[in-house]
Design brief:
It is a single chain. This protein is α+β, with helices and mostly antiparallel strands and 135 residues long. It contains 2 helices and 7 strands, in the order αββββββαβ. Strands 1, 2, 3, 4, 5, 6 and 7 form a 7-stranded antiparallel sheet that branches.
Length: 135
């Protein structure tokens, strides 16, 4: 029927791959590339709170430009860069989605944004270790 069967097979394969690519990148709601590099707060089951750029690719969450809250011996909280931890990890975290309690986009007007962007150094904040109760 067709003299050039391999060419026809190649054309069909390219068409199928193109259709799959269109489906994955346009119609699949499981993919969420964070195009606008917004900052997010991510709270984990461990009680740890992290800040950074959150990206979801299929069911995999990654956080880059990572910061976390750390309490010193005086009870003051400070924002620390993740890659400056004692064991010097990469500035990227791959998060287990089962351990994510919640995440929230941080507004551009937040006082955290200049710190996260490296335009301002963080200042420690004293936070009471126990919440006073009223009876």
């Amino acid at each position: 029927m067709f003299k050039n069967k391999p060419l026809l097979i190649n054309i069909i394969l390219i068409a199928i791959i193109a259709l799959l690519a269109v489906y994955v990148f346009v119609f699949n709601k499981n993919i969420n590339f964070e195009l606008k590099r917004s900052y997010y707060a991510v709270y984990l089951r461990t009680g740890d709170l992290y800040f950074g750029h959150l990206c979801k690719f299929f069911s995999k969450y990654t956080l880059t430009n990572v910061y976390f809250l750390q309490r010193d011996e005086k009870g003051e909280l400070s924002l620390q860069k993740f890659e400056q931890s004692a064991y010097q990890p990469e500035d990227k975290m791959i998060l287990n989605k089962e351990n994510i309690v919640w995440f929230s986009k941080i507004k551009n007007e937040s006082p955290l944004i200049p710190v996260l962007e490296g335009k301002q150094t963080p200042t420690p904040t004293t936070v009471p270790s126990e919440t006073p109760t009223t009876e």
